[in-house]
Amino acid sequence: MLKRIKLILIAPIVFLCTATLTAQAKYDPAKTARTIAPFIDAQTIAVAHADVSRINSDAIFEKVIENAIKIAEPQEKDKTLAELTKCRQIIRQWITDFTTAGGEDIYLVLNLADLPRFFMIAPLGPKADAQEIANLLRKAQPAGSSEGSPIYLDCFEKFGNVAFGGSKETLQRLQTSPPADRPELSAAFVAAGDTAVQLLIILDADARRVIDETLPILAQLPGDISATAVSRGLMWAALGLDAPPKMQIKLEVQSQNATDADALNNVVGQIIDIIVKQNKHLDLKKHLTLLKPTVKGDRLHWLLKDDQINSLMADIFLPASLGVGRAGELVNRKKCIDQLKGLGQAIMMYQNDYREKCPPNLETLIEKANVHPQMILCPSSNEKYVYRGADLDSHASSNMILAYDKLEYHQGECRNVVFCGTQVESMTQEEFCKAIELDNELRRKLKLPEKPAE
Fold first, then answer.
1. pLDDT below 50 — which residues of the chain?
2. Could you tell me whether strands 248-254 and 197-202 are parallel, antiparallel, or unpaired per DSSP bridges?
């Protein structure tokens, strides 16, 4: 767990935090856009900017420590606290060194030509130590010293009036290729607002076409969710973030027109409904409702204030009163859903190879479909799923049941069920009984014997 916490936290906190008490300059979105514009071209898809003089690193770490301790195993709480305290000291020293060297802002840029790498830019003031700031960017890169990592950055040096951190190939590209005019950059910085951190997604026509063509494949979207609504509805997006002690998150998405904004809003609503339906046991509805946007003309708006963010974080990390065992059970329920989805897909593959028939038992999938033995066991109980599909074939209705877990596997609160259409649902016992009734009705139509529930 400690290793995971370090990997997740160190690079973002380096990007976000500062403990300095320098005077806050008025946010100038036009100036911010002009600063990074020379490094932006047609293939740029994301830009992040942090004003390091505006974020309190100690307040951020207090919030991180508070929630990390809640999810730590009891025997690891002391180690977790010690490790995070050490991280806080490292970050604080890095920030002190950065500001002492004359650093103020950091930009991160993601360009299609550089994927999976990104590059970093730190503007240099008249008294800045360019080499020292470049060295500090090297220390802050997420890949650290892992030279074999696909995102490892190997070039840190002064480039014009900035300190550059990235790959040698990226630097060569910036030196030889002219920037492209991206007028949406300035508009997006305006929308992100006077916040400590801004994250922009800027998509040109080619990038949106790629989304339209590949999103259904990559995300396995349900048939009624339109990728075109996403590609047309997302011209650019601007996220503004103020970190602790007083948090705020605002997001604006620019669509091509009001019609496309409404269509994208419908997609957001559909995704929220799907997440709620598939995770009934997590009681997400009241919180995900906060993530529904308001639509104003051709834009979608989100705004989360400090109390709302704290409420979300409390439920994500779970109140201490629930205990680690409860947290582990909720994690296992999600893993169970994913496993049953994989089993459903493995059974469909088996049918393709064995005359459209389902396997006689789940153990057959281990030998014939390269399914890992652990996949046929519910992660909450380590007991085998109940298999109901031995006498089914490709003629079975998509609403017929292939496999499910017993009620006691999840503390009597829910059952997870995979159907012949490979869809998985988390059900109450009442909903499960209705599903069994429908399954037996469909069995009678196929002249198959009815089966009782276990």
1. 1-24, 218-219, 318-325
2. unpaired
Question: Quick check: helix, strand or coil at residue 102?
Answer: coil
Give residue-wise pLDDT tens across range 6-53: 433 444 444 444 333 333 457 788 999 999 999 999 999 999 999 877
Residues 229 and 142 in one domain: yes
Closest CA to 119 of 73, 80, 171: 171
Please check whether residues 317 and 386 belong to one and the same domain.
no
Rounded Cα distance, 165 and 141, in Å: 8
pTM of the predicted protein model: 0.63
Packing angle between helix 57-71 and helix 2-16, nearest 10 degrees? 160
* Distance between CA atoms of residues 375 and 378, nearest Å: 7
Please, is 90 exposed, middle or buried when counting C-beta atoms within 10 Å of its C-beta (0-12, 13-18, 19+)? middle
Give me the domain span that covers residue 21: 2-321
> Does residue 351 share a domain with residue 377?
yes
Instruction: Identify the pLDDT of residue 297.
Output: 93
Which among 259, 292, 321 is the end of a domain? 321
> How high is the pLDDT of residue 88?
84
